[in-house]
Design goal:
CATH topology: Rossmann fold
Bound molecules: nicotinamide-adenine-dinucleotide
CATH architecture: 3-Layer(aba) Sandwich
Number of strands: 12
């Protein structure tokens, strides 16, 4: 099988490409990535060039997309602008890539008729809005979209356009909405890699607001297995929520990282809260468990320890990515 993976030089995409090639020895991956600040050829270094074809290009460009889809059986769509803070500073590129880029891909899948057996869209739990800290509610496939940040609004819009191509044009889509990922090759602007790399350099760890915001954390390898389960066992037209069963307050995550590294909590510095900061996300993955037989395997404690060790061992990867 030949897969087109978009955004395969980013954090989750590159982990997925590695995972797929290792577990599907007959398959080839075409990796279409624009190499924005978040895309890094180092993330896919060392892969067999006969099975991993890298295409430097933009999903918004029809000609590029047409060429990249030649001979492809399945499309797995990760490419996006992904950082909430950047969407607060400037939303336009989020709409262009996340909405219009997704539309460009869908048009090409539609144009190719029966050639493409599946278009799998990677989305986020952030499209569902925010939950109260003191509730035990969780998002599921039935939760209405209620995005709060320009990032999550652009992802919600892309979910809708993907679904519309299924209902209107019969494009064989699936969608997965996943919680917060962590693991190797995570760009050091996001919470976990930022805190690890700051702690390793003994510089302050900036925590938004009171640090009580809760996220559900999933190891990127569990996410990759979840996508594999959707591709191999999922039903066309369906959405699957993938969560890590690991709700943690940001401050607890930061303290845990400091503990693993043996660094003092005095490095924590509370900073002005993010605008419109969603209080809590949590995912109910029971549909994925019942229908796909998928559930996350790694505990947060084990995954976090491994991730910290990866950053300790791979300074040569993250140091060139730091600002200033
Ligand atoms: N990181 C998370 O915790 C998380 C959780 C749930 C869902 N998601 C979704 O998973 C996907 C991947 O997230 P990530 O954290 O790996 O993001 P990332 O920012 O690390 O990677 C995004 C990749 O897309 C590429 N890209 C951006 N614009 C492009 C364009 N116009 N054309 C081609 N390539 C382009 C970038 O170069 C980069 O390699 C996104 O769709 C995101 O919304 C992320």
């Amino acid at each position: 099988m030949r897969l087109l993976v978009t955004g395969g030089a980013g954090f989750i995409g590159s982990n997925f490409v590695r995972f797929w090639l290792a577990n599907h020895p007959q398959d080839t991956v075409v990796n279409l990535d624009a190499l924005t600040y978040a895309g890094n050829p180092e993330n896919v270094r060392g892969l067999d060039p006969d099975r991993h074809v890298f295409v430097h290009g933009d999903i918004r460009d029809t000609a590029t997309v047409q060429k990249a889809m030649e001979g492809v059986d399945v499309v797995v769509h990760f490419a996006a602008e992904s950082h909430v803070d950047r969407s607060i500073d400037g939303a336009r590129i989020f709409l262009e890539t996340n909405v219009l880029g997704t539309h460009t891909l869908l048009e090409e899948v539609k144009r190719r008729g029966d050639q493409i057996k599946r278009f799998h869209h990677i989305s986020t739990d952030e499209v569902f809005g925010a939950l109260d800290l003191d509730s035990d509610e969780r998002f599921s496939e039935d939760t209405p979209h209620d995005p709060r940040s320009p990032y999550s609004a652009s992802k919600a819009a892309s979910d809708h356009i993907v679904r519309s191509y299924f209902h209107t044009h019969g494009v064989p889509v699936t969608i997965s909405n996943c919680s917060n990922n962590y693991g190797p090759y995570h760009f050091p602007e996001k919470l976990i890699p930022l805190m690890i790399t700051n702690a390793l350099r003994d510089i302050p760890l900036p925590v938004y607001g009171d640090g009580k915001n809760v996220r559900d954390w999933i190891h990127v390898e569990d996410h990759a297995r979840g996508i594999e389960a959707v591709l191999t066992k999922g039903k066309v037209g369906e959405t699957y929520c993938l969560g890590g069963n690991a709700e943690r307050a940001n401050l607890d995550v930061v303290k845990h990282i400091l503990k693993i590294l043996g660094k003092p909590e005095s490095l924590i510095q509370f900073v002005e809260d993010r605008k419109g900061h969603d209080r809590r996300y949590a995912i109910d993955s029971s549909k994925a468990k019942a229908e796909l037989g998928w559930e996350p395997k790694k505990t947060f404690e084990e995954g976090l320890a491994e991730t910290v060790a990866w950053f300790q061992a791979n300074e040569g990867w993250w140091k060139p990515l730091l600002k200033g």
